[in-house]
Specification:
The strands form two sheets. Strands 1-2 form a two-stranded antiparallel ribbon. A two-stranded antiparallel sheet has the order 3-4. It has a single domain, classed as Amino acid/polyamine transporter I (Up-down Bundle), CATH 1.20.1740. The chain has 22 helices and four strands. It is globular, with a radius of gyration of 22 Å.
Length: 520
């Protein structure tokens, strides 16, 4: 069986050739040898299953609907359109920048490995350690967040269909979070061998679910005027200007595009990873970005006016109110929304796999307390079961916080965006530093050529800009419940990581760069 391969020539151009399955195996062996890591996993993922993994992990068209309330409050319909386009441009440049880095070092460690390999030798150990903690805790927050989101969506179904007869209790959401987390855990342990095949099927559902939703809304919903969608901005958050409101509202598309590094964390389970990982990252951005934009336009044209039922929906989700406006049927609304629920559960499965591999990799480099425990790979299933179960346990414990305070839980869960953005910035900045050094870059099978430096600098600037605004609250006038506490939590993570480094990391952590073998 043959597949296309892309390598960089001496002039920085792309040369297309074909590699056999044996060549793919040899490439993986060569990569692991250079990285100084043993091959501990089965390489069961191929291009299609990896693409399914990353597309459903990001779940862009689903997430743009789930988080639409934030952008409708800050920017409105027109703000959502233009901020989505701007975010896609910035994010796509960031994705292809990281794709090139992933082609050089296709490892489960991802960002912290890249920082270790490409940062200044003077700072690489410290920066790599901090980046590792940001990635581990960021993905942990992501898993807790997606499980809770699925749980509250089920509560939204109940509120939609039973109205005041259903009394929404916080402990209901916590128990539903438990259920989603346990489903994801079952798939990632007992059914782990079927995960690659499942991801291919989920990709099909991801695409067919999109068309089923979009066609239904266009057929059944009344259409808003184009002027309303493309020219009317809102500032219900009370910011000093509409422009600032639109920028604050970018958290919706940012959240929808989050997770392009997911493929890198399962790189050691992908056949021909140095080629498949970067191209899957690129195609995921293109596919999800396109589907997300088409769904956004559909949603804005068929949702009706931006009123109280949209901005403060009784179900907690604006898109449920929009669905009901378009279809006029609670049954149809619930049916369409169930597509999103199923796909978000599938996203939780992928996020758990990603988080557990990130935890495993960081422990493999002796960076975590009890590293031997978390780095253990089950010899029979070839799965880091301990890391999977630990991730689930942390999510269950975190979800208990919701019983006392949803705001406190959301503050921890919102750690994801800031932490992952920071890890992306650090990775790309360190790669820029390496580009500027006298030492040539290692050979890679996905290259940006002469565009690389410019794209890297633009990506770092965009990610830094987006990173700042992820900490803004949803409105200018805040309460203890509506304040965005993620800045406090993120700062706490940084302090925690620094303390861990001083107490533990600087003594035992060398960083992945210590194991890398330089090869010509």
């Amino acid at each position: 069986m043959f597949s296309p391969d892309v390598v960089e020539t001496g002039k920085g151009d792309l040369d297309v050739s074909f590699n056999s399955a044996d060549d793919a195996f040899n490439n993986d062996q060569k990569d692991m040898s250079r990285l100084g890591k043993p091959q501990q996993f089965n390489r069961n993922f191929r291009f299609l299953s990896t693409l399914g993994f990353t597309c459903t992990l990001m779940a862009t068209w689903e997430s743009i609907l789930l988080t639409s309330t934030l952008a409708l409050v800050n920017g409105g319909k027109a703000g959502m359109v233009y901020m989505y386009i701007a975010t896609f441009v910035g994010f796509f440049c960031s994705v292809i920048s990281m794709a090139e880095i992933a082609s050089i070092s296709p490892t489960s460690g991802g960002q912290y490995h890249w920082v270790s390999e490409f940062a200044s030798p003077k700072y690489q150990k410290f920066l790599s350690y901090i980046t590792g903690w940001l990635s581990v805790l960021g993905w942990q927050g992501g898993f807790a967040s997606i499980c809770f989101l699925c749980g509250t969506l089920i509560q939204g179904f109940l509120a939609l269909n039973y109205g005041e007869a259903y009394h929404n209790e916080r402990w209901h959401g916590t128990l539903l979070t438990f259920a989603i987390a346990l489903i994801a855990t079952f798939v990632n342990t007992y059914a782990a061998g079927h995960l690659p095949s499942l991801e291919g099927l989920i990709l099909i559902l991801h695409i067919f679910g999109f068309f089923a939703t979009m066609i239904t809304l266009w057929v059944m919903g009344d259409k808003s005027p184009s002027k309303e969608v493309f020219t009317e901005f809102t500032n219900f958050g009370g910011w000093s200007s509409v422009g600032l409101a639109v920028i604050v509202g970018q958290i919706t598309p940012i959240f929808s595009f989050l997770g392009p590094d997911g493929a890198t964390h399962i790189a050691e389970e992908i056949k021909d990873a140095s080629k498949v990982v970067p191209w899957c990252m690129v195609f995921t951005a293109i596919i999800n970005g396109s589907l997300g934009f088409l769904m956004l336009i559909t949603f804005l044209f068929t949702m009706g006016p931006v009123n109280d039922s949209i901005l403060t929906p009784p179900t907690g989700f604006s898109f449920l109110s929009a669905y009901y406006t378009a279809t006029g049927s609670k049954a149809a609304t619930t049916g369409l929304a169930c597509i999103i629920l199923v796909l978000e559960v599938c996203s939780a499965i992928s996020i758990l796999a990603t988080c557990s591999r990130q935890t495993f990799a960081f422990a493999r480099d002796n960076a975590l307390p009890f590293s031997d425990f978390f780095a253990n790979v089950n010899p029979k299933s070839k799965i880091p079961v301990n890391a999977v179960l630990a991730t689930t346990l942390v999510t269950i414990l975190l979800s208990l916080i919701n019983i006392g305070s949803t705001a406190a839980f959301n503050a921890i869960a919102s750690l994801t965006v800031g932490s992952l953005y920071a890890s992306y910035v650090l990775s790309i900045v360190c790669f820029i530093y390496r580009r500027m050094s006298a030492e040539p870059l290692p050979a890679r099978r996905f290259s940006l050529g002469s565009w690389g430096m410019g794209l890297n600098v633009f990506s770092a600037a965009y990610l830094t800009f987006g990173f700042v605004f992820t900490f803004f609250p949803g409105s200018r006038m805040v309460t203890l419940e509506t304040m965005n506490w993620s800045s406090l939590v993120w700062g706490g993570v940084i302090i925690f990581a620094i303390v861990q480094y001083l107490m533990h990391g600087r003594k035992v952590y060398e960083g992945p760069v210590a194991y890398i073998r330089k090869m010509q």
